[in-house]
Amino acid sequence: MTDTELVHLAIDGGIATITLDSPRNRNALSRQLVAELTDRLHVAATAPDLRAVVLTHTGTTFCAGADLSEASTGPMTGTASGLLALLRLIVETPQPVIASIDGNVRAGGVGLLGACDIVVAGPRSSFAITEARLGLAAAVISVTVLPRLDERSAARYYLTGATFDAAEAQRIGLVTIATDDLDGAVATLTADLRKASPQGLVASKRLANREVREAIERHGEEMVELSARLFASEEAHEGMTAFLERRAPRWSA
Question: Per-residue pLDDT tens for 117-128?
């Protein structure tokens, strides 16, 4: 375990800003990053007079998904369970959670966006659900992603792993606002949230994300089991090894 903090928390004016800061591995969902993000969310949610949480990042990537250097060395059941718990925590955090991104979002990172209440994407943002290319499936993150997307788009991007931009992400329901003025859009949203009562925000959030909460409860554990089974498979080992070695997997045309 490194002593370097990967997730930072700052609270000002009723707004908590949580920043993913592990650019060396593109803010991948390592055990340390997941544990620190979980801790920062718990701390933020208990801050007095908090109106919203803004989740953002350093570097060119918001989150690259699973840390494949960890995934290739041992069982993933615990990691999948930890990710499910993190997604549930974002959804259950009483205050609205706004994702503020201007970079690449891949695989498990898309799941974080699905768990957030509002997603604002800047012009450098790009998105891809790449698990199928690695011999995997977007299993755990499906509980937060599928309720957000239209079915045809979900099928297209789950199956192909193709990259799409912020405008397309907004069209299919993953992103709330695609904008060239990221800071301005987030500032407007947080100003609006400050006008709402704390009780009103909590109750309204629960109404707005009811389908996501139900998907987590209905399918979460099943998706953890599926994820662990796929990660342990021979094809997934080949896919992850090929990715880490920067080569095409043996099935790639």
Answer: 999 999 999 999
φ, ψ for residue 57, nearest 5 deg: -155, 160
CB half-sphere exposure, 68, CA atoms < 13 A? 22
CB 124 within 8 Å of CB 102: yes
Q: Is the pTM of this model over 0.85?
A: yes
Give the bridge partners for 120, in sequence order.
100, 177
Cα–Cα distance for residue pair 132/239, rounded to 1 Å:
9
The CATH number given to 1-181+197-253 is 3.90.226.10
How distant is the alpha carbon of residue 221 from its chain centre? 18
- Can you give the residue ranges of every domain in the chain? 1-181+197-253
pLDDT at residue 142 is higher than 70:
yes
Which stretches does DSSP call E strand in 64-208? 97-101, 104-106, 118-121, 126-128, 164-165, 177-178
Give the model confidence (pLDDT) of 32-58 as tens digits.
999 999 999 999 999 999 999 999 999
Residues 6+ away with beta carbon under 8 Å from 189: 52, 98, 118, 120
User: How are beta strands 61-63 and 52-57 bridged, if at all?
Assistant: unpaired
**What CA–CA distance (Å, rounded) separates 231 from 123?**
33
